[in-house]
Amino acid sequence: MVRTGSASVAAGPTLAVVAREAGVSVPTASKVVNGREDVAPETRRRVTEALDRLGYVRRPRFDAAKSSGLVDLVVHSLETSWSGAVLHGVEAAAHDAGLEVVVSAGLTRTRAGRPERGWLDKLTGRGSSGVLFNLAELSPAQYGWLDQHRIPYVLIDPVLEPPPGVVSVGAANWQGGVTATEHLLALGHERIAVVAGHQRKMCSSARVAGYRSALAAAGIRQRPEYVRPAGFDESAARRRTLELLDLPEPPTAVFVCSDRMALGVYEALAERGLRVPDDMSVVGFDDLPEARWTSPALTTVRQPLSEMAATALRLLVRMMEGDRPESTRTELSTRLVERASTGAPRG
Question: pTM of whole model > 0.90?
Answer without folding.
Answer: no
